[in-house]
Amino acid sequence: MRTILLAAACFGFSFVQGADVEVTVDGVDAAKGTLLVGFFDNAADFQSPGKEVEGSPEIKVTKAGRIVCVMKGLKPGVYAVAVIWDQNNNGILDTGAFKRPKEPYGFSLNPKVQFGPPKYEECTFTVTEPGGKLHVNLIR
Fold this sequence. Notes:
This protein is an all-beta fold. It has no helices and nine strands. It is globular, with a radius of gyration of 15 Å.
């Protein structure tokens, strides 16, 4: 688990406002589809469509290259991020034989993915103060 910290207390920020977390996604090589950036706050919901924390970003991909988005207003706590590059805009991660993903995807902390998706605990980070940054590399 990683802690995202920013010395914001000296500016008088309150946790009531929530934290903004910037997510940088690498591996987008075409201007098509949507990046679904799901923030999850528990293991039971991790990677379950529709169970993301409210306000999880969906970014229309209008250019190839690095994409940066911001999740606004996160309460302090433990989170994991799952990113899907939904290239055909159907709202899900398309899979093929043996449920192998057909679209690029990635996770916070970029865990090694071998035979199935990583566990929630492999992707978690802690938000303690306003501000923070994550980097996700898409897997093909």
